Amino acid sequence: MSYRVLNSISVKNLSGRELAKDKSSLLVILVDKTAKKNNLLVHLDKVSKGGLFGSINSLMKSKAKSLNLHSVAGVSSKEILLMKTPEKSDTYVWLNFFKSISKVANSLGKQDISVMFACKTLKNRDDNWMIEACCRQIEASAYIFGSSKNKTVVKPSLKRASIIVGSVSASSLKKLKNSAKVGFAAGEGMNAAKHLGDMPANLCTPRIIEKKVKALKKPFPKLKISSFNEKDLAKLKMGSFLSVGRGSDEPSRMMTIEHKGGKKGEKPIVLVGKGITFDTGGISLKPSPAMDEMKWDMCGAASVFGVMIALARLNAKVNVIGLLACAENMPSAHATKPGDVVTSMSGQTIEILNTDAEGRLVLCDALTYVKRYKPAHVIDIATLTGACVVALGNFATGLMANDQKLADKLLQAGENSGDRAWQLPLWDEYKACTKTNFADLANIGGAGAGTVTAACFLSKFTEDYSWAHLDIAGTAWVKGNEKGGTGRPVPLLLDHILS
């Protein structure tokens, strides 16, 4: 299965005359006060006998954000959409602006669009960044969930997009095309992550995710894929991981996806994703309001899935291993109880004081397992704590690390991609939270600093390598009218890996 929405996104280097003859169903021109200096627009204005610049003047003087022009004289495109670019030089604002392009195209029923920049680049950004970000957002925002709909399904109309540039050298054009390719792949990765997260939990169980992971071998035969059932996990002595799924009729699964595009012998980056396909809280049952949102508790694993697809699509020259740790947390007569003690793969025993702190129980064994890869560094991604939503809301992912250099690189990747993170402390003072009289560790700390104490628990299993933890509880999905997965932090992770 392909997780792409668009069939293609390309970059075209056109003259003004060639642009006038371009027959896309919608030509989207991004304009600001400098638009009249654009050589391609000068030609279009000439063939339209001044009509184009007149329309741009009207738009810039009005409070409107866009202006539709139908059947412009001398221009072969059926329709021109002038879009006023944001005045603020803010990455977040511009990414939302780029997102609106495919939404408008879908609302107009367009199958193919051409997009050209007749505006200044964002402050501290070059043309390559603008095109990569634009292509990523066009692909990602063209996504419309419809997999579990019959009568009310709405399919996106947009299938092709072209980015129009002019008077570009061969070397510059090559770089711009690569930027578009990276952006398109990042958008596809985001859509893959969104698709898994948006699927109802009864249609996206650990075994179903396992099938989807195995299915990647068909489009991407170079990927090495391994799968572990509950017997395999028991042989690995993953008692902590297995404790989470005991109350469910759905068996747990762990999958690894290996992309070997880098030099032979080069240490891999390892990504570990929490994949709780539904989280009732177990015996420590959650309150019912908004419990449906716990189908997104597997977004860490979904983001790893999306990143690996993007890397495979790009045939990226890096060594990366993605691990998906999947289980369903349900209450039953077989479920793990508060006060139970389990033995992790590391040999450390864990007193489970709260069965709703289950994500760290699957992650700790997965983080122990990945030591065998002798990683350059490990990043785990998890919808781990509601406390992170309280602390940072829906705008920033929580970041904690045992290696400041790695943390700095991830923070920079967040700034570069616009998929931002914010670092929280991982000080020794917090680590006393794991103490208990009845096991080596407790799975929860005190009432405060829940995000930090969860990371402190994980840090007990990551002392042998460089590690960072991304808490995406606030950024993996949104509520309200736009309710659904966001595909984050796929852009952050890709920027970090590809840099």
Give an account of the 3D structure:
The protein folds into two domains: 8-166, 3-Layer(aba) Sandwich (Leucine Aminopeptidase, subunit E, domain 1), CATH 3.40.220; 195-498, Zn peptidases (Aminopeptidase), CATH 3.40.630.10. Helices cover 35% and strands 21% of the residues. α10 links the parallel β9 and β10. The protein is built from 15 helices and 19 strands. α5 packs parallel to α6 (170-198), α10 packs across α15 (490-498) and α13 (404-417) packs across α15 (490-498). It has 499 residues and is an alpha/beta fold. The strands form four sheets. An eight-stranded mixed sheet has the order 7-8-10-9-13-17-14-15, sandwiched between helices.
CATH architecture of the largest domain: 3-Layer(aba) Sandwich
Compute the CA-based radius of gyration: 24 Å
- Ranges where pLDDT stays below 50 over 5 or more residues in a row are none
What's the CATH H-level superfamily name of the largest domain? Zn peptidases
Helix percentage range: 25-40%
Quick synopsis:
The chain is of the alpha/beta class and 499 residues long.
Q: How do the helices and strands line up, and which of them pair or pack?
A:
Blueprint: E1 8-13, H1 16-21, E2 26-31, H2 39-47, H3 51-61, E3 66-70, E4 79-84, H4 91-107, E5 112-118, H5 127-141, E6 160-165, H6 170-198, H7 206-214, E7 224-228, H8 230-235, H9 239-244, E8 253-260, E9 269-279, H10 299-314, E10 319-329, E11 340-343, E12 349-352, H11 359-369, E13 377-382, H12 386-392, E14 397-401, H13 404-417, E15 421-423, E16 441-442, H14 450-459, E17 467-471, E18 477-478, E19 484-485, H15 490-498
Parallel strand pairs: 1-6, 2-4, 2-5, 5-6, 9-10, 9-13, 12-16, 13-17, 14-15
Antiparallel strand pairs: 3-4, 7-8, 8-10, 11-12, 14-17, 18-19
